[in-house]
Each structure stands twice: as structure tokens, then as C-alpha cells.
Amino acid sequence: MSEFYPAVAIAVVLNYAGVILVGIVVRVVKEFDKRSQTGSPLNPDVQTLTMDKFLDDIEREKPSRFTSQLLRIATDNFTHLLGQGGFGAVYKGIFSNGTLVAVKVLNGSSDKRIEEQFMAEVSTIGRIHHFNLVRLHGFCFEKHLRALVYEYMGNGSLDKFLFHSNKDLGFEKLHEIAVGTARGIAYLHEECQQRIVHYDIKPENILLDENFFPKVADFGLAKLCNRENTHITMTGGRGTPGYAAPEVWMRFPMTHKCDVYSFGMLLFEIIGRRRNLDINIQDSQDWFPRWVWKKFEPGELGEIMAVCGIEEKDKERAERIVKVALWCVQYMPEARPSMSFVVKMLEGAIEISRPSTNPFQHLMSDTPNPTAPVYDTSNGTYSTSAYDSDPSQTVTGTPIMKNHEIEIAST
Ligand SMILES: Nc1ncnc2c1ncn2[C@@H]1O[C@H](COP(=O)(O)OP(=O)(O)OP(=O)(O)O)[C@@H](O)[C@H]1O
Ligand SMILES: [Mg+2]
């Protein structure tokens, strides 16, 4: 009997120890799970756990929430700067599973009150998938870091290939890039559950993957960030000079047609492989779109081709691009085509009628019209006191969209 008591005591102690151990294990597992869900700081060696969740999210087409610590590790403490824009700086990063990413660190601080709204917007953008749109993998929303995590695009942005040293993209490839970009924008305008107006179409926001397939970047950002306060490239808080439509500068109500205008300006830059506004080029060509019209109208297309160095084999494609560009930049928004129509015209699937209205009439008139906008060639902006005085004016026939808002499609 005296030997029995110690044996029972040991069994009881072991039993309790077992229960406590199981309890601890359960709590640790729960804590890991909770942290990976909420994005609270994680130990670096728990990264794989988050990575599993990340891959799972990707499969479920849902943006992930990342911790600042994880993004710091992935970007090697934000060392490899890819570029800097109006919203903040973009850094290259790599996750432990080998996924390359571009991390856009947004300016400004994270206000707890806007967290919900931020997450709602990110979740909308993160669920939009199209071959010609840059994929948003996820985001970080912490007191000292607000960031967006995008798929990494190996060849950077189109501007490098149009205006800088690497002008080696053939015209056929440039035409493909134009078509792909138009498809991406058409998807945002016409196929998303909620229409998304980009507001900032320009070569810097057309990214190229390792095969030079184009993807439109930064859609949805206008709504996500308070551009009025952050976007340094803009005057009056809207668009980018040189690409923004007249109604943007004149405080007219804006529609998705302002993206069509900006896309038209991009097409001129593809044709000319130069910035539309280049004060270093001789006078008559300093603003390229107007020069193109002046040549196009009397039928001097040959001169446009010669000046732009377009080879014989590319002339037919180039002519198509010129015509589409002139349609896209029409002064009246309703005269501009829809983006799906633009795709068809660029592909050559439909006949393109000859643009007969001078899109720059308001800039060429000999007798200045006091209500017409004035184009300032020094900074690429329009201005007019007459339009500024009545910001509530509407453009008949087009759905009205409030500035920088994503609105339900109303076609
Ligand atoms: N996903 C990405 N992959 C590779 N490079 C990128 C990516 N996103 C951005 N970049 C690079 O970083 C640069 C800066 O991008 P960012 O969007 O901050 O500025 P921007 O496009 O010049 O102006 P904006 O603020 O109006 O969009 C881009 O021009 C591009 O070269
Ligand atoms: Mg950008």
C-alpha cells in the first residue's frame, strides 16, 4: 500500500502536466492564427505561416494584409527604390517564397478612423483581375506604414522606352502595348461591377512585364488617396498636366471620357516617341498633337510618318493610331469613343472614320473666345475663368461622375 501512494501521486501530477501542456499548445496555435489574421507583428521565422496565408489569399483572389515588419524584411529595409510618384515611393521586394513585389509606401500617416474605408477600397481594387491591369497583392495599414503591395513588373514603365535611352521597342510592339492598355482601361470602364475611372493615364502608369505585355497601374488610387493633398504632379488637384482633359482643368463634371482623352495623348506619344510637349523641339512641333492635326487635316500623313521615323511596313498601323488619337482627344467628351470601341479601332476590326472636327479648335482661333480655355504650353494645363465660375455645369448626354470617385456604372 505504501508503494501505491507515490505511484498514484506521480500519475496525477503527470495527468495535470499533460493537460497544462495541451492547453499551452492550443493557446500558442490560436495566437499564431490570430496574429496572422490581424497583421500584428510577427517574428521573422513565422513568415512562412503568413506566406501560406498569402498564397491562399492569392488563390481566393483576395488581397492580403501584411505587417510592416514583413514588408521591411521583403524590401531589405526599403533599399531598392524603383521610382517616386505623387502618392509616395515604390520599392522592390521579394517574399520568402520567391514572389517579387513592388511596395508603394503611401505618403501621410495612418489614421485609425480611415482604416475601414482604406480596407474597403483596397478590397475592391484587390479583387479586380485582368491581364492588362497590375495586380494588387495586398496592403499594410499600421501607424507608421501605409503601403500597397503590387505584382512586380520586370520592365518598369513605358516612359523609359518612349522617352529615354531604351528606344528599342519596335513599332509593332508599341502597337500591341497600345491595344493592351486600351483593353485594361475598357475593363475598368465597362466590365467592372462598379465603373472605375483612372484619372491618371500616362506612360508612367503603364507597366511592362518581362515579355513587354502592358498592364495599367494605379487604378483606384484616386479614390483611395486624398489626391488633393498628395499628388504633387497636379495643379488644382486633378490629373497630370499634358494628359488631363480640358474638362478636368475647367472644373466641369468629369466622366470616364477623361481617361479616353488621356489615352489619346498617350497614343500621340507612342507615335512620336517623344513627350507631347517638348520645348526643345522647333516651334511648330513643340506641342506634338496640334502639329499632327495640322498635317493630318490637309492629308499630309506622309510627313508625319517621315518625322516620326515610321517604316513602310508599319504605316498602316501608325495611321490607325493617329486617327484614333485624334478621336480620343476631341474637345467634347461625348465626341470621344468608348474604350471598347477604341480597342476595336486599334485592332483594325472596324473601319475608322476620318476625324473631321479639329480637336484643338479652341486653341487655334484667331479671334479669342472669352469662354474658351487657354492652353498654357509651359506646363500643359488649361485654364479659363468663365468655366471656373460655374463648377456645377453639366455636360449633357454623359453620366456625371464626381471628381475622384468610383461610381456605379450608369451607362
Ligand atoms: N509594380 C511595379 N513594378 C515595377 N516598377 C514599378 C511598379 N510600380 C511602380 N513602378 C515604378 O515606380 C515608378 C514610380 O511609380 P509611382 O506610381 O509612384 O509614380 P508615377 O507613376 O510616376 O506617378 P503617379 O503617382 O501619378 O502614379 C514608376 O514610374 C515605375 O517605374
Ligand atoms: Mg504610378
Query: Pairing-aware structural class of the strands and helices?
Result: alpha+beta
As a percent range, the share of strand residues is: 5-15%
In the residues, how many domains can be counted? Answer: 2
The ligands found in this model are: adenosine-5'-triphosphate, magnesium ion
The pLDDT mean sits at: 78
**Approximately how much helix is present in the residues?**
40-55%
The CATH class of the largest domain: Mainly Alpha
In the CATH hierarchy, the third-tier topology of the largest domain is known as Transferase(Phosphotransferase), domain 1
Largest sheet: 6 strands, mixed
CATH architecture of the largest domain: Orthogonal Bundle
What Rg, in angstroms, do the CA atoms define?
Answer: 27 Å
| Spatial arrangement of strands, main beta sheet | 1-5-6-4-3-2
In one word, what is the shape?
A: elongated
CATH superfamily of the largest domain: Transferase(Phosphotransferase) domain 1
The low-confidence runs, each spanning 5 or more residues with pLDDT under 50, are 28-47, 226-237, 366-372, 384-411
First-to-last CA distance:
91 Å
